[in-house]
Amino acid sequence: MDSEILSKTNRLFWLGRYVERTIVEIDIMMDAYDRAIDREPFDFRTFCEQLEIECPYETSDEFILSFLFDEDYPCSVISTLGYAYDNAIVLREVISSASLSYIQMAVNIMQSAASGVAPMLELQSVVDMLYAFRGCCDDRVLDTANRYTIKCGYSVEYIDMCIRLNYHVHTLDVELARLQTRLQNTPMRRDGKRLMALLGLAPNPDPASNRELLLDCVEGLFLDA
């Protein structure tokens, strides 16, 4: 595959992944924050272990706010949203200026929330902007391969988070079926063995028993990613 095409395809895929990761992590952190108000500390160390990320924090409250808003922490939500924006800027001609504008608004709201007195109230607006981005891409990205490459990114990230964090596991079979449909419309090269294993697990995925196999299949599915 031509290197320029590969670069664009890779960026489209990771744009989808970063957008989906931001949405899921905000959802988890908002729930953790609500529980913290009721004096239910968030098990942030296990959370970090499941995501295989560094954990330089000592308390649940410190972790939640830092994980959301610390731009110096490369694994933070605000950093992840920044990675999505970096890819969207490069892909502006592919995804359209209208789609890019929703990512920009999400970044602006996230930065405002970081310095606000009630940051959690603004996080839902960040999620709303990202869903608006997804809808705009559906409408404005006319090339089927480009559109479905972004969608493959959504699916891979969502499945990855479901498996790692036991997040909405009841929806995992539906998302795996959705990914199978999306695979038919992307130029990204697949690992045949991992694809066959994933197809075998898709009707009845069980992260409790097949966590490592599922993660290996999903994370290693695309040879271009």
Classification by helices and strands: mainly alpha
Strand/helix succession: HHHHHHHHHHH
Q: Which residues form runs of ≥5 with pLDDT under 50?
A: none
Cα gyration radius (Å): 18 Å
**How much helix is in the residues?**
over 70%
Main β-sheet: number of strands, strand sense, barrel status?
A: none
Question: Termini distance?
Answer: 13 Å
Mean pLDDT: 94
Q: How many strands appear in the DSSP assignment?
A: 0
Residue fraction in strands: under 5%
CA-based shape = globular
Q: Give the helix tally.
A: 11
Number of domains: 1
Q: How would you describe this structure to a colleague?
A:
This protein has 225 residues and is mainly alpha-helical. It has one domain. The chain starts with a helix and ends in a 6-residue tail after the last helix.
Question: Would you kindly provide a brief summary of this structure?
Answer:
It is built from eleven helices and no strands. Helix 1 packs parallel to helix 8, helix 4 runs antiparallel to helix 6 and helix 10 packs antiparallel against helix 11.
Task: From the structure above, extract its key features.
75% helix, single chain, 11 helices, 225 residues, mainly alpha
